[in-house]
Please model this.
Amino acid sequence: MMAVDYPTAKSTVMEEALQKIKVTKTTKSRLSEVDFNNLVFGKKYADHMLVADFDGKEWKNAQIIPFQNLSVSPSNAAWHYGQAIFEGIKAYNDQEGHPMIFRPHDNFARFNKSAERMGMPEVPEWLFIGGLAMLIDLDRAWVPSNEGCSLYLRPFMIAADEFIGVRPSDTYKFAIINSPSGPYFNKPIHLLVQDKYVRAFPGGVGYAKAAGNYGGAMYPTIQARKQGYDQILWVDGYEHKYLQECGTMNVFVIIGNKAITPDLDSGTILAGVTRASVMEVLGDMGFTVEERAISIDEVVAAHQNGTLREVFGTGTAASVAYVEELDYQEHKIALDTTKYTVGAEVIERLDAIRTGKVADDKGWNLRV
Ligand SMILES: Cc1ncc(COP(=O)(O)O)c(C=O)c1O
Model:
């Protein structure tokens, strides 16, 4: 393995990972079954996966094994009470074809925040970061180089107790699976501003990447899809007017020379790694970035007075997704995404960093 190009504790983390994670390689790669020119999102899985068990005290049995089913008891506590969290990260190839993972330490920190909120154990760095680096090293041929494609990395943790009483599980399973993926959306999206159903409340679990947040969003999303929308743009639960986020994305609104994105203070919004990156990139582009409460009324008013330029979602899976239509009650905000210069420059700058076309001054890439 090449040195991991990250400024902190890298050699100790990797040493511990190499010492503790047992590797069993596949004897039959499935790589030739994948059409890298026609990748869709999240359907194929790389040859290897990582698994580890928390026994109530420590993480054990860390292994990289051929991708396979997990055997889980019907009384598994995660299935019944929802102690389940996950992350989404991407690995890209640089210009010489070497894999790089984008900002995995941010996802590592968020994973452990989610774990804390859900009463689950923290995962150590050797297992999360070291495990990712070892996995990608082994499955480096699975990292696509085609435009708009990447290896989507999915670390997750579930309760593992075989017990159907309601209490926090004592044991847990951590795993990482990886999926060579194409674009999440292949065209600009239509969003419905949802003011009846609520995704998250202050004091709840909105800021955690907990499986239940997504489960709770399914029914309203099905209703929105039936009306022809791609996703919901959630608003706050008290006043039903302050923008929160979309299904799997944070949201940015460009009004004049300001880029506005909802602040994270209420704890109801997932602190997107892409969101943080886009804020920095927008700053580099000369925009004033405002992290603050923004109401749908403000967006409607900006549209009416001609200052609303662009609305886009940001997320690891979707990257930067242009919003072509934003509907709220009787208001239909139609936007001409062919004129999106801000979103376009953000994508270009982000992609250039993620694929090593420009120097990674921000230290965002972890080289494998
Ligand atoms: C609910 C939600 N909001 C926002 C995001 C964007 O976060 P990130 O940029 O870290 O992928 C995601 C995707 O992870 C998400 O699921």
Summary: The first strand starts at residue 22 and ends at 23. Residues 88, 245, 248-250, 270, 272-275, 314-316 surround pyridoxal-5'-phosphate (CB under 6 Å). The domain at 10-183 is CATH 3.30.470.10 (D-amino Acid Aminotransferase; Chain A, domain 1).
